[in-house]
């Protein structure tokens, strides 16, 4: 007998699968999806992941064979962790805290990860901040039998540029595919809302959906506030808009909650705002859409326009969307520095997979495999789960990626614009001023707030704490902090990354 031991996710192509696997389609979602996992495993075995579209991480236990089978989706939208105990057992879960509660887990800090974190601001690769606790990486499955662990890859991002199509043909394919995916994102009896910023991705998702109410974040600081643009978009599309005003007091007050529920430190300042947005949204819905994935697939970041200039040098420095602290600076501030622990080693295998492809494709693939999994999707999953909200991301789909993987880079970025083909597709249902609006990003006024003595007292306290003394040369990190408060706003990311680690460490190793 096989049973579902652990599952988190949403299977989009359930109607097709129910027909193929002879499952009654009128079952509850929970029962239906469990049956899909069981019957897909019985039918396709380790290849079952290639038959599923959507977001998933799960563990199946085969009682007859005494075998554990675990799988994580293609892009890592749902987390999955495992830990081998001293007595030869395997603990696994979509939650680190659930593993920590099980017999045999020994809580010990993996301090090497701090060195990686200080550059990337998130936990990249298979290791975590807990020694021995590992992530099952995207597109992999795990088999545990007879106390032996085997991990295999069932899916790898592959890129094969097709030069035969025009820009308009690519835009047509994107638009048609999104139109086919959207009805799968929720059942007919479900009602969803949608996060909406001033950008094209969330606006396109909204325009292609039947959502009536949208949810946006706003700030009193006008130059950081996209909520006005979001409201304009909602008005144009005939939808309502709810605005969550984020104050510095609320922002700093929720940081311990975020680091605890994130389970590992995350130095992405937008994660705090997102947590507040999730809390506000869950007051009137339990299901919400979000637009993640398109930037990495279709060339959405402004730095991608420099790809050709970087050329082969990418292999020496590009480790993903963030790289805030170089090795010489980490050597100065960390009490334990290992010259053999380098972020670039995390991506060497990805560069081997993309050998011979153009620089933009290489940058995108690094971000798809490292940044999305380690930062963006982790944030979406953990903060929504903590708030009691379910988030589905229509643009993160293997069928969408399939288009991006065949699209030549010149249709992704040009000298003036990013996401060229996606914007051209979006312009079929959005006004051009929205479809081709310059990318702003999910910006937060943290660089202003954290320099203000009214809000940075806990930062200063943590920088001078016994905790900080364990890991950092306190005079060096305070020099960075003082330089930032004195006017060098470029240092805000460094300060924030150190601070978020210390808050997380206090939550997991001091308080508990």
From TrEMBL:
Residues 1-147 form the Glutamine amidotransferase type-2 domain. It is an enzyme of class 6 (ligase). GO terms for cellular component: cytosol. One of its GO terms (biological process) is asparagine biosynthetic process. Keywords: Amino-acid biosynthesis, Asparagine biosynthesis, ATP-binding, Ligase, Nucleotide-binding. It holds the Pfam family GATase_7. It catalyses: L-aspartate + L-glutamine + ATP + H2O = L-asparagine + L-glutamate + AMP + diphosphate + H(+). The record marks 292 as: Important for beta-aspartyl-AMP intermediate formation. Pathway: Amino-acid biosynthesis; L-asparagine biosynthesis; L-asparagine from L-aspartate (L-Gln route): step 1/1. One of its GO terms (molecular function) is ATP binding. Its EC number is 6.3.5.4. InterPro entries: Asn_synth_AEB, Asn_synthase, ASN_synthetase/amidase, GATase_2_dom, Ntn_hydrolases_N, Rossmann-like_a/b/a_fold. NCBIfam families: asn_synth_AEB. Belongs to the asparagine synthetase family. This is asparagine synthase (glutamine-hydrolyzing). It comes from Mediterraneibacter hominis. The gene is asnB.
